Amino acid sequence: MSTLAADEANDIKQDLETVARLELGETPEVKQNSLIQLRQLLEEDDGFQVPPNDDLLLVFLRIRKYNVPEALERIRRYFRARKNMPEYFEEVTTSSALYETVFRKHKLIMYANERDQQGRVVSLTSCGAWNSDICSLPELFRCGLWAMECNLLEEETQIRGYVAVLDLKGFGSHHLMQATPRFLARLISITQDCLPVRLKGIYFLNTPAIFEVVYAIAKPFLSAKVKSRLHFIGSDLSQLCGVIPSELIPEEFGGTKNAFDNARQERLYKEKEGHFDRIRQCGYQTKSANCVS
Questions:
Q1: Which residues have a Cβ under 8 Å from the Cβ of 40 and sit 6 or more positions away?
Q2: What's the whole-model pTM score?
Q3: pLDDT tens for residues 30-68?
Q4: CATH code at position 152
């Protein structure tokens, strides 16, 4: 690495440490003490297999700004969800037919290679382009959840946060029939109450009138904080310029989406595949199960 590149990397690291300290209250001492406390509490939880390294515990401490009791409750919810709703947590691999269909062929889920102006990772899910001939709705959610978890393993995403963009162009009655109250309640419960994600904004694009029915069903399950971060945008996507990376905005609105390259994200997915093999051995298991490092 050149001296200039090394200096830039050091500046980014220092800036990230500043954000972590100011927004999360993270310092080396707070981090160390909180990890010790959280690990001790989890070890006292009968039947819970504690992750052997601190990386996963740290993600949950950051989402709760080092409030150890709240981090404990969030990690318990996460592993209960994995145990009770395994159909949403089954791993997707880059060699699977489902990945080929959702990510490569139809590009229903895309992550910007660049972060936004605040350093947050940005995803785009083309909900309106989905139909049951491509995959089931639970399978689409499973893909989105897996991709989100892969990105949450990045330290910068844990600290700076996550922005979701949902494109509803083409959303109609056939989508409405699939979005049952039970499914919506589960989707919201997992993403809002279980995952260790700093959700900084959700942008709905090309919102049709029929989507009001879905929102009316979902609204009672949403926290006040999440509702305050929802943004409904019509068909003029030029409003997004300067808000999200241009590669997720169509060319006709000043972006470069038509030239989107998924290569960097695919490398990230491949790098993180081993994480899911390890995490399956942790959490609420039979007493004979052991976590692996």
A1: none
A2: 0.87
A3: 999 999 999 999 999 988 999 988 999 999 999 999 999
A4: 3.40.525.10
